[in-house]
Amino acid sequence: MNTTEIFLIAMTIIFTVPYLIWRLGKTDYYAPLVVVQIITGILLGPGVLGRAFPDYYSFVFTPAVIQSLNGIAWWAVMLFVMIAGIELDLKKAWAHRRESSITAGLALGMPLLFGCVAAGVLLLNDGWMGPRALTWQFVLGVGMACAVTALPILILLMEKLEVLRQPIGQRILRYASLDDIAIWGVLALILMDWERIGRQGAFLVAFAVAAWLFHHLMQRLAERDRWYVALIWLAVVSFGADWAGLHFMVGAFLAGASMEAEWFNQEKMDQLRHHVLLVIMPVFFLSTGLRTNWALGGEAVFVGAALLLFASITGKLLGVRLAGRILNWAPGEASIIGWLLQTKALIMIIFANILLDKQIITSEAFTALLLMAVVSTMLTVPVVAPKLARLKELIFRTS
Length: 399
What we know:
Structural class: mainly alpha
Number of strands: 0
Low-confidence stretches: none
Oligomer: single chain
């Protein structure tokens, strides 16, 4: 078979297997389709499928096919990160700046601290830190991976729980939005290349000037033109960030964050996010799965994942609980908000992909982080749904 035919076989597998697992297994309550696609990507990777059926794996996932899939995956994740940047609502966060800053700061800072401690424990053994990483980069990178909240997946889960448009849902979006900015800011710090500091500084200055001009241009365009120009802007800024050594996904976030949500129809933006998840993000999940590695031994990777999961969830819940005490929240709110904000999934996987690309973490550490992200996301709905039901019952009784 030629490369095109093998590529189409790979695409058939990518879309068929997770859909059948999701639909026939009725996993939607604890594992939405997005989570099933991530798990399927891991199963189809070299650590599981490649080990069980090496001939089959090498036949389907040839270097040429993997290269083609990676190209689609790059564009998919760039679009997804851009949409996340556009959906940041800093105006509402500023209107409630005391509450938002306290909660977002503790919700990010506490799991970051716990994650850094977990990273220090991992450093007691070889095989976790990448060959091009400094110790502080590894510790801060893993710590921030434990602190990440996946804003786009959080939106999907809150839609499922029917709280997205409610006051508590809007509060959670404000907290997650502020944390999202901090996450990408810390990533830029980790990726700072002191040998190319001049190039990175030039990019940031050029971006600031270009963003100002872009802002004025977009205000003068009709909405139908804004969608197309936004894609050009995405490609240009992502190229500039990658050229400067900051990684193209940092550029994708900057491209989105420099756009105003009101420039676009909200319903169409929601549709675009859903369509990106449906049409091309499954390729990213598969390409992510192809990067998993169990060379340290399955037990070590699972122990590392469990340590990171404990640090992530415990830190997030303690941080939000402390914020609830400071701000005098109603009983039960801190637990619900904390569990929703610990959702990892896509953004953490994207974050970990960047760390792996830059050789700050090894593929074994990447696999542990990936497992942590999957489990944390699968826990969200089963844990939060009964807590929401009890909170609604309490409100009903007191009203």
